[in-house]
Amino acid sequence: MTRLGFFVLFALFVLFSSAALAAPPDPPDPDSVTDPDATTSPAPSDPPPVVRQVGEVIATTTRGERNNLDTPGNITVLDREAIEKSGARDVPDLLRREAGVFVTQDSTNPEGYRLELRGFNNGSGNGSGTLVLVDGRRANEPDSMTTDWALVSIDNVERIEVARGPVNAAWGDAAEAGVINIVTRSGEGPLRFESRGRLASYDTYQGTIFAGGSAGPVTASLFLDGQHSDGYRERSDYRKHGGVFKLGFDLAELARLDVKAGYWSDKRERPGTLSAMQMDFLGRRAAEPGPDDNFNRVRTYNVDGTLQVFLAEDVTFKTTAWYRQRRSKGTLSNPTFVLDDDNETQVVGVNSQLEVRRPIFGHANQLVLGGDWSHDKASFDSVFDDRSPFDFDTITKTRADRTLYGFFLQDDLNLLENLILSGGVRYDRNSRSATNRVTGNDFNVHESAWSPRAALTWRPLEPLSVYGSWARGFRFPNLSEAFGFFGFAPELEPEKSTTYEVGAKLRTKHADANLAFYYMTVRNEMLFNTELSPPFGLEVNMDRVRHRGVEFSTTLRPVEWLEFYGSYTYDDVEITRDRLTMLEGNRVPLVPKHRGTAGARVFGPCNTEAGVNANIVGSRLFINDSANAFDQMDAFQVVDGHVAWRPQIGEHVRLGVEFNVYNMLDKQYEEVGGIRTLFDPVTFLPMGQKRFFPSPERNYEVRFLVEVRR
Question: Please, which contacts does 387-392 make with residues 24 or more away whose CB atoms are closer than 8 Å?
Answer without folding.
Answer: 387/335, 387/336, 387/337, 387/338, 387/681, 388/336, 388/337, 388/678, 388/679, 388/681, 389/679, 389/681, 390/535, 390/678
